[in-house]
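Q: What does the assembled structure look like for these inputs?
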Amino acid sequence: GESVGLHLPTLSVQEGDNSIINCAYSNSASDYFIWYKQESGKGPQFIIDIRSNMDKRQGQRVTVLLNKTVKHLSLQIAATQPGDSAVYFCAETPSTSGGGADGLTFGKGTHLIIQP
Amino acid sequence: NAGVTQTPKFRILKIGQSMTLQCTQDMNHNYMYWYRQDPGMGLKLIYYSVGAGITDKGEVPNGYNVSRSTTEDFPLRLELAAPSQTSVYFCASSQLLGGFGTGELFFGEGSRLTVL
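A:
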């Protein structure tokens, strides 16, 4: 069946370096993509989103890239800080969704570890 | 605004016991959701609601029930607890998602349930 997944379960980076977290999706009808951050013991928090008519979107220290040809999504975090340590989830929903999160599919997550 | 509030944060149940996880939000969101998160896995949708009086099954509804008598509250009921229901449960709320709005699901802090 269709699924959203992540290439690496754990990513370790040096503080100050840039981090790149990858996500592959298989649903060709996916229209809208979201990245969430989940710190230990907390609920996920929205980071950034992107629609399928875009290739790139930038936020504060974060950039999401979408390659629809190979069904690949990535989250780039610039100048990684200790507070960036968390599990990062990608999620997608198809254009046929009625507008609620019932059509939202989450990946398994990548654990980002920041080395001092 | 308190956002999404879940209680209890932790609970241990014996097999066959029943309990209700409470969830309330003060953002006047129409959409509310219950997810479960198993170790190393993404979030799985249990039930959702698009407004007061309306609920629907998600991906993994078996063993659970919900009600939505008000916009603010969306309790999750476990009738006959089983070890397979050991998990972390997250309640969330949102406005419209995808092409109709933003991807921002607002999550509670989670309820860790253990069934022995």
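The radius of gyration of chain B is 14 Å.
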